[in-house]
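Structure in, sequence out. Go:
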């Protein structure tokens, strides 16, 4: 998928600004460096009533800086308030995400794993609807879910689904760019030993990489793949 043979359209769907970089920043950078067309969709954000509009605008500015580092020029923000996604009628949320799928016509779709955060679970469900192998969805070759520090690792073992990767992308050459992009999120990155610290992201990258025989990796769970 990322060997540079044939240009692909890749859609990365993130619940909130920074999830795309945490979960797939290296893969995004690898894709753009190989000439693939990468689009990022940010579904939700730090908006009222829980946050001020200024907080949201800060995260949008941070996201745009991160996108620039990762080589992303096509992106969208749906502006649904964080943790209030459940207030959206299901058919409305599905259509908002499906509309981007129809516009981009991706061959590869990467989305968040349905983990501890309610937004991640609801968006995963909508992505599964929007990427069904019917209509525009028949052109999708791969749908995979990425892990997001910290939420993915806070699921209750054996009670809820655990993230078990079956695909690891080699991001050894892109790890520093991922870290550089992540540092754009001043409002979101925490100090070590915080789960969203730079050190934690580097540690996870090393762990996933060495699981597959290289220095740094990003892990995914493949939902559907065809050749």
């Amino acid at each position: 998928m990322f060997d540079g043979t044939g240009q692909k359209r890749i859609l990365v769907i993130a619940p909130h600004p920074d999830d795309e970089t945490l979960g797939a920043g290296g893969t995004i950078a690898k894709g753009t460096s190989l000439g693939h067309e990468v689009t990022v969709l940010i579904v939700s954000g730090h908006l009222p009533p829980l946050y001020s509009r200024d907080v949201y605008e800060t995260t949008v500015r941070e996201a745009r800086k991160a996108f620039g580092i990762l080589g992303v020029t096509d992106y969208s923000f749906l502006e649904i308030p964080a943790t209030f996604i459940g207030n959206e009628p299901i058919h409305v949320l599905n259509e908002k995400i499906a509309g981007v799928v129809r516009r981009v016509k991706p061959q590869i779709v990467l989305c968040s794993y349905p983990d501890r955060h309610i937004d991640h679970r609801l968006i995963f469900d909508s992505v599964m609807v929007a990427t069904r192998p019917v209509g525009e969805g028949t052109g999708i070759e791969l749908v995979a879910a990425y892990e997001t520090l910290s939420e993915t690792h806070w699921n209750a073992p054996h009670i809820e689904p655990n993230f078990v990767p079956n695909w690891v992308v080699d991001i050894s050459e892109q790890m520093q760019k991922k870290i550089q992009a992540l540092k754009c999120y001043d409002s979101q990155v925490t100090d070590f030993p915080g789960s969203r610290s730079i050190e934690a992201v580097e540690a996870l990258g090393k762990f996933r990489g060495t699981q597959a025989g290289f220095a740094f990796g990003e892990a995914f769970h493949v939902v559907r793949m065809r050749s």
